[in-house]
Amino acid sequence: MALPTHINHPQLGLVHITYRTNSGRISARWKNGSVHINAPASISTAELYKAIESLAPRLTVRQPSLKYHDSQSIKLDGVEFVITRQNISPDKITARPSLPVITIGVGTNFDLNAPETSQTLSRLMCRIANRIAPQLLLPRARALADALGLKVSSWSISTGHTTLGRCSAKKEIALSYMLVFLPQHLRDYIVWHELAHLTEMNHSPRFHQLCNKYCNGLEKQYINELKHYHWPVLK
After folding, report:
1. What is the dihedral of CA 26, 30, 32, 36, to 10 degrees?
2. Same domain, 91 and 116
3. Is the residue at 41 inside a domain?
4. Residue 1 has what pLDDT?
5. Whether residue 164 is found in the same domain as residue 216
6. Residue 6, C-beta contacts closer than 8 angstroms, at least 6 positions apart
7. Nearest to 167 by CA among 201, 126, 132, 117
8. Cys-Cys link to 211, which of 23, 77, 196, 230 (CB 3.0-4.6 A)?
9. Which of 150, 149, 166 is nearest to 158 (CA)?
10. Does the residue 117 lie in any domain?
11. Residue ranges making up the domain that contains 14
12. DSSP 3-state assignment of 94?
């Protein structure tokens, strides 16, 4: 019997499950309003269900909550998301993804107080952010690298929700599209963090000293602000 890839849980809702051959333990996190579980490929169905039940109370407490409302404006650097009601297509949520203002029309048949609507709107804004991220993020990132006299082999946009940036040994830097939802100074911090990895590929004291230099002495402040940042989408 094949292992399930999705489970409808009474507390957690739809749970997404990925099996990994190189994993020896089970882990779980919220992503875009849903629970995503990584499990060892050798796990049995009974062990999987037992683990989910064990994790459910902690995941329920940590469940992110977010509500949107009519005429809401989410202003970010370089882009503004505007959520409005529309009755032309009451069963649909429409969007015009053109910078600098992106208007999202929520059909009148949708309950804006329902968690399902929040999840749908969050996913839509994430898809739009992924589309506009190269235009919005990469020119600034290149400018920051040039200002420091640093050479990056290539820049790209990634889809990570928890990993906001990556720097490879080949000096390739990937920035998550989630940076679209950050204020400019925190976007810059992520870029400076990855630029510091061009020299120090770990998180040693020397790395933080270099990163702090790039951040003009504000690294700790930025780390704390990012830790407590209220994301406008489900993360």
Report:
1. 20
2. yes
3. yes
4. 65
5. yes
6. 14, 15, 16, 17
7. 201
8. 196
9. 166
10. yes
11. 6-61
12. strand
Residue 171, phi then psi, degrees to nearest 5:
65, 35
In the three-class reduction of DSSP (H, G, I as helix; E, B as strand; rest coil), residue 167 is classed as strand
Which two structure tokens, joined as six digits, stand for 17?
């499950």
Enumerate the β-bridge partners of residue 59.
Answer: none
Tokens of 214: 């790039």
The label of the residue with tokens 């809702």 reads: 13
The edge-to-edge listing of strands for the beta sheet with 72-76 is: 72-76, 79-86, 101-107, 93-96
**Quick one: 93 and 152 in the same domain?**
no
Q: Are residues 103 and 139 in the same domain?
A: no
The last residue of one of the domains, among 61, 82, 104, is 61
Q: Do residues 203 and 142 both lie within one domain? A: yes
Instruction: Please check whether residue 140 is in contact with residue 78, taking contact to mean a CB–CB distance below 8 angstroms.
Output: no
Q: What band does 32 get if pLDDT is binned at 50, 70 and 90?
A: low
Two structure tokens written together for 77: 């650097």
Residue 17 CB coordination number (10 Å):
19
Q: What is the CATH number of the domain that holds 197?
A: 3.30.2010.10
Two structure tokens written together for 182? 């950050």
The burial of 141, by beta-carbon neighbours within 10 Å (0-12 exposed, 13-18 middle, 19 or more buried), is given as buried
Number of domains in the chain: 3
Q: Which residue has the higher pLDDT, 170 or 65?
A: 170
Question: What are the pLDDT digits (tens) for 201-229?
Answer: 999 999 999 999 999 999 999 999 999 89
| Average pLDDT estimate for 46-57 | 91
What Å distances lie between residue 187 and 42, 146, 176, 190, CA to CA? 40, 16, 10, 5
Q: Does 156 lie in the same domain as 222?
A: yes
> Which amino acid belongs to residue 61?
V
CA distance 42 to 22: 10
